[in-house]
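WARN  no MSA supplied for this record, continuing single-sequence
INFO  ligand: protoporphyrin IX containing FE
INFO  echoing inputs
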Amino acid sequence: MSESTTTLYDLIGSDAGVHALVERFYQVMDEDTAFARIRHLHPADLAQSKEKLYLFLSGWMGGPPLYVEKYGHPMLRRRHMPFPIGSEERDQWMVCMTRALQDSPLTPDLRERLIAAFFNTADFMRNREEPGVPEPGFAPVTGTPASSGGRDPSRLDPQETP
Ligand code: HEM
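INFO  complex generated
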C-alpha cells in the first residue's frame, strides 16, 4: 500500500486540485492591484495563460505531462524572455502563488516545500540585470522559505525535466 509513489499531483487533489490552484493564482493576480506589474505582462484574457500553467503544473507535480504532450519541452526560461522579469516580478508572482497555495489541501510542510520549489523556478526566470543581484542560477539557492534543502520537488527544474 505504501509502496506506490504518492506525488504532489495526488496530494494537491489531482486534476481538479491543479485546476483550482491555477484559477486561484490568476484570480489573486487579477484582483489585487499590488500585482498590476505582472498582470500587465499577461494578455487581457487570461484563459490561455491559465490553460498553459495548468498543463505545465500537471507534469511538474508528477502527474500527466500534459504540457510536454501538447507543446514539447517547456523551455520555460526561453519562453519568458519576451517579458522583463526581475526580483520585483518574481516576488509578485510568488506572493500570488503563495496565497493560492493557502487554499490547497496540503500539509504546512509540503506547502513550504512547494513554495521553495516555485521560488527556485521563479528566480530562474529572471532576465533583467539588476545592480547587486546575482544572475539566476549563479548563487547557491538558500534563504528560500523552506530551508529543507531536500532534493525532491524543490529541485524540479523545468529546463531539465521533460
Ligand atoms: C517569475 C515571475 C513570472 C512572471 C512575471 C511570469 C509571466 C508570464 C507571462 C507574462 C506569460 C505569458 C502568458 C501568456 O502568453 O498567456 C507566462 C507564461 C508561462 N508561465 Fe510564467 N511567469 C513567471 C514565473 C513562472 C513560473 C515560476 C512558472 C512555473 C512554475 C511559470 C509558468 C509559465 C508557463 C507554463 C507559461 C506558458 C508558456 C508558453 O507555453 O508560452 N511562470 N508567464
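The domain at 10-128+139-155 is CATH 1.10.490.10 (Globin-like).
INFO  checksum written, moving to next record
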